[in-house]
Amino acid sequence: MKEGYRVHFGRDMHTDSLIMLIKRVQNGKIYVANPIELTFREKKECEVLDPTLKICLDESDDFLEAIRNGLEGKSLDDIKGELDATKNHLEDMRKIVYKKDYKKIGE
Fold first, then answer.
1. Phi, psi dihedral angles at 45 (to 5 degrees)
2. pLDDT tens-digit series, residues 7-49
3. Contacts of 49 (CB under 8 A, 6+ apart)
4. Residue 36: helix, strand or coil by DSSP?
């Protein structure tokens, strides 16, 4: 098993939330990050801010690559293409069911 970070994204349908799971493979073992409660507060004027998340530079490229890999998948263009194909399929099915030409959706 290749060492390094793994980042997985998903959706929790029960809470209508985006979920993110961060794992790290090291010495043949898998470690998972503890849950982080992401809370916000108002920034005070001239306040010096601490980072939300801090990772050492030696591991940062691997971590960012894992985030990119976790986000890969279907792009918006892919999803649009699937929706267009579904719309065309539904139009074809209507023609079969109603046996006539009808006004296309969006026209």
1. -60, 135
2. 888 888 888 888 889 999 999 999 999 998 889 999 999 999 9
3. 43
4. coil
